Amino acid sequence: MNSPFLTRIARFFILLFLQVFVFNHIHLFGYATPLAIGYMVICMQRETSRTSLLLWGFVTGLTYDLFSNTPGMASASCTLAAMIQPMLLNIFKPHDAAENFTPSITILGFSSYTLYAFMLFFMIHAVFYLLDACTLINWQLTLLAMTSGAVLSTTIAVGIELLVRTGRRTELHS
Known about the structure:
By secondary structure, the chain is mainly alpha-helical.
């Protein structure tokens, strides 16, 4: 797939399928539930227009909301993450990177990519769980759910990156 739009569409449907049918049923220790659908926002190119980025974030979250019966929580989370993504990407981008790059482990490096993904996933989980709780009475449990979900989602995103990048390197050497 040479077209970035077709790549995004394919990524969107694969992530939505995995999120709805696999990741929504993972609840490690009763708290850690990944929202890997946020990977759509994390891997958007640096020079993507603000409008396009916000639209992709909103549509991604809204589609997840429709399938998961979470009225507006994921769309608010993914839209906020799409708003913050360019600022975080400017913090973590290497000095020698091209103007228009897609954030990945190969470009940002393992530690920078992991921290970048964790920060965006933590924001997604924070908004999602704060909207879900609507109160801070059990703030310790909410914080535990946010942190553990962000760690699990970051692990999934790093796994996807390693799987995709390893597959591309294998294709190039063949």
